[in-house]
Amino acid sequence: MKTRLCLVRHGETDWNAERRVQGQIDIPLNAKGWTQAAFLARGLAEVSFTALYSSDLQRAMQTAEPSAGILRLPIRSDPALRERHYGLLQSLTAEEARARHPQASLRHAARDSEYAFETGESLTAFEQRIRECLDGLFRRHAGETILVVTHGGVLDIAYRHATGRPLSSRRDFALPNAALNWLEGDADGWSVLLWADSSHLAQALDELSG
Predict the structure, then answer these.
(1) DSSP state letters, 97-164
(2) Catalytic residues
(3) 74, exposed or middle or buried, with CB in 10 Å at 0-12, 13-18, 19+?
(4) Closest alpha carbon to 153 in 178, 184, 130
(5) Is residue 176 part of a domain?
(6) What is the pLDDT of residues 12-41, one digit of tens each?
């Protein structure tokens, strides 16, 4: 029995526009992000979802709100859907990170899977959290279609898991704000049905660490 997940990265924030690492810092949507959330809701209006989940960080919850209204579904907030915790790199741009924490910046760029930014979360631990969370959704909603509003790092893990890409490889796929990313799964695993569909949006911003 196939289950379908529509994964959506939250709308744009000011820190996205500044290319500043948000991680688990709770940053709200900016005006463009609210517009993207509204376009998202319109684009999903004709889809029959049985449940709507969101990260509990406000940029995700705010993105989910218009869709919840149109779809007439409650938002089920789940901290397991949060972005990765980037520890000492949170709140910094890439340039600031290289200047203040050069070794941490290098290990991040190298995708060191065991490095946790001293006060954050390793890529290995993050992957385990996201895989367990999404596997749980697939089991809980067997045969259903559900909407999940989350973060770029979560989408990165989901795409790699569904396509067999290793954590160590450089990202070669897009993660636009408020785009539609469809996965299908069952007991045998996940597959990608459609990725980075921004046809419902006037504009979308692709940014790595948000």
Answers:
(1) HHHH-HHHHHHHHTT-TT--TTTS--HHHHHHHHHHHHHHHHHHTTT-EEEEEE-HHHHHHHHHHHHT
(2) 10, 83
(3) exposed
(4) 130
(5) yes
(6) 999 999 999 999 999 999 999 999 999 999
CB 133 within 8 A of CB 153: no
Token pair for residue 58?
Answer: 């406000």
Please tell me whether the overall predicted TM-score, pTM, comes out greater than 0.90 for this model. Answer: yes
155-186 pLDDT, tens digit each: 999 999 999 999 999 999 999 999 999 999 98
What φ, ψ does residue 6 adopt, rounded to 5°?
Answer: -100, 105
Q: Does 207 map to a domain?
A: no
pLDDT at 205 over 80: no
3-class DSSP assignment, residue 191: strand
- Between CA 89 and CA 109 the distance in angstroms is 12
Residue 210 has pLDDT above 60, yes or no: no
Q: Which domain holds residue 39?
A: 3-84+123-197
End-to-end CA distance of the chain: 33
Overall number of domains in the chain: 1
Rounded Cα distance between 158 and 152, Å, is 10
Tell me how crowded residue 103 is: count the other CB atoms within 10 A of its CB.
Answer: 8
Domain containing residue 23: CATH number: 3.40.50.1240
